[in-house]
């Protein structure tokens, strides 16, 4: 859990990178980022759905530090485009826009 403490104790803010992912998909993307040196974490955005008997979350978000945002976007760009093309009817997964 030290990595989590370091993640949150940083002066750099945490940014939501992408949302609307299935839990296994979000974990795979988090692992991809981790393997490339980018600390990330996932969060189930609708925990009530888990209480309805589902095995996994259906609306997960992926978060990274602001300093890693552009690099993370570059790594995940092919995956996000692929998901957008194959899931138009379910709502496309998109990168969250900077404010």
Explain what you see.
- The protein is of the alpha+beta class and 99 residues long.
- It has a single domain (2-77), classed as Alpha-Beta Plaits.
- The protein is 44% helix and 19% strand.
- It is built from four helices and three strands.
- It has a three-stranded antiparallel β-sheet with strand order 1-3-2, with helices on one face.
- The longest helix has 18 residues, at 69-86.
- The protein is globular, with a radius of gyration of 14 Å.
- Residues 88-92 have low confidence and may be disordered.
Keywords, please?
99 residues; alpha+beta; Alpha-Beta Plaits; 3-stranded antiparallel sheet; 4 helices; 3 strands; 19% strand; globular
The total count of helices amounts to 4
Rg computed from alpha carbons, rounded to a whole number of angstroms: 14 Å
CATH architecture verdict: 2-Layer Sandwich
The strands making up the biggest β-sheet line up spatially as 1-3-2
CATH-level-4 superfamily name: Hypothetical protein rpa1041
CA(first)-CA(last) distance: 30 Å
Shape: globular
Unreliable stretches: 88-92
Structural domain count: 1
CATH uppermost class = Alpha Beta
Quaternary state of this entry equals single chain
The amount of beta strand, in percent, is 15-25%
Which range best describes the helical content: under 10%, 10-25%, 25-40%, 40-55%, 55-70% or over 70%?
A: 40-55%
CATH topology value:
Alpha-Beta Plaits
Most strands sheet: 3 strands, antiparallel
What pattern of helices and strands is seen along the backbone?
A: HEHEHEH
| SSE-based structural type | alpha+beta
Mean pLDDT across all amino acids: 77
The tally of beta strands, per DSSP, is: 3
């Amino acid at each position: 859990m030290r990595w989590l403490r370091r993640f949150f104790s940083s002066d750099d803010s945490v940014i939501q990178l992408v949302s609307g992912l299935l839990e296994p998909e979000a974990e795979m993307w988090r692992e991809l980022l981790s393997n490339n040196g980018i600390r990330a974490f996932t969060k189930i955005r609708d925990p009530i759905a888990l209480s309805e008997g589902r095995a996994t979350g259906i609306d997960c978000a992926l978060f990274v530090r602001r300093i890693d945002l552009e690099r993370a976007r570059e790594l995940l760009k092919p995956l996000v485009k692929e998901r957008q093309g194959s899931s138009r009817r379910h709502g496309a997964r998109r990168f969250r826009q900077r404010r």
